[in-house]
Amino acid sequence: MAIQKLRESGNGLTGTIAVPGDKSISHRAIMFGSLATGKTVVKGFLPGEDCLSTIACFRQMGVAIHQEGDYVEIQGNGTKFLKEPDAVLDVGNSGTTIRLLSGILAGLEFYACIQGDASIAKRPMNRIVDPLRLMGAKVEGRQGGMYTPLTIQGGNLHSINYELPVASAQIKSAVLLAGLHAEGTTTVIEPEQTRDHTERMLKAFGVSVQHIEKNISIEGKQSLTATTIDVPGDISSAAFFLVAGSIIPSSRITIQHVGMNPTRTGIIDVLYRMGAQLTITNESEETMEPSADIQVKSTSLKGVEVGGDIIPKLIDEIPIIALAATQAEGTTVIKDAAELKVKETNRIDIVAKELNKMGARIETTEDGLIVHGKTMLTGAKVNSHGDHRIGMMLAVASTIAEGETVIENSEAINVSFPDFFGTLNDLQK
Length: 429
Ligand code: SPQ
Description:
alpha/beta; four-stranded mixed β-sheet; UDP-n-acetylglucosamine1-carboxyvinyl-transferase, Chain; 24 strands; 31% helix; binds ligand SPQ; 27% strand
């Protein structure tokens, strides 16, 4: 349990910060570097618990990975030299690890068992098990493959054309990674565009990936060549400070070198529509992933409607958008976001439950939230429920609340932002 009593001075948050490396890109850098031949160097890696789980899984399959803080070297020998793990692969809290790793394991000719923590045990795995079985992999799990632990006997895959039942970068990536080891060309059809880090990074490792409208195709039996990956700051982590800087009076924060991949910048579009004062400078397109510095100044916000094809571009930012909406004039409606129910927690229910304890007026709907602003928040005993994004959202909420807030299970934040409180404290000096 952590007690947060973050703001009594009445001062805003001021200063220049960097947020840790992008979680999605960090996972993929470890995975693809482990499949490649040669030495892959990763700079700006996120040393959060989720990405460390990915490293541990590949070490168990015999890959030499040297990690020191945000610097990683991977000595890859190609997929032929990956060895059957002699114990269960543990993904901890990481949905990205289990889903992408399953796609990789489906193509490798050995047996593996994967599981994670109590949250992973409740998240649906049939979304990747179904297409991997269609490709010929032998995958089993609890309740017919719905839940972990999963066992995978890989190898002998054939290609498929697969229409994603939901917009999910994890399903897309699992199928493409299995397709890498299949006979023929595998095509994934997206209902809406989701984050494209897998496609971008496979290209950086020398793999040919075709993208025509909503179809992404990969030819099987391609090999990866080691490269250097520069990971920009995670826009999903920056989002907490973009909202904090907007809603805490007298704030002015600059966040350096934030990833600006257009499949991830929905938060910026929504904050602009709410009236936020953001300035984007130092835009760089030099590397595989674009980046920029973002400056935010506090201002008054207004309620907006958020739904449709922007949802995959901000899916992980909805908890912090909901907090911003509690401080906006008018009503904010978030819809088309039923996927939030199958994240680390049911984020529709938990956002409403925890913020309402602090005095917010939030209703849940089948596929989103209705937030009535503007409400004054008061300190309360709240709980992250083991969800890092809920923990960070509640910490930002506590900085504007009157009185003391206690956040239970705040250690969940280590999953994606180990020094979150240090960064927040630096801005309060
Ligand atoms: O890895 P995990 O636990 O699934 O992490 C989350 C998060 O909040 O950090 C979701 F709970 O991010 C997912 C994201 O929601 C990371 C991700 C990726 O790296 O491909 C894609 C999204 O999930 P999905 O299910 O929409 O593909």
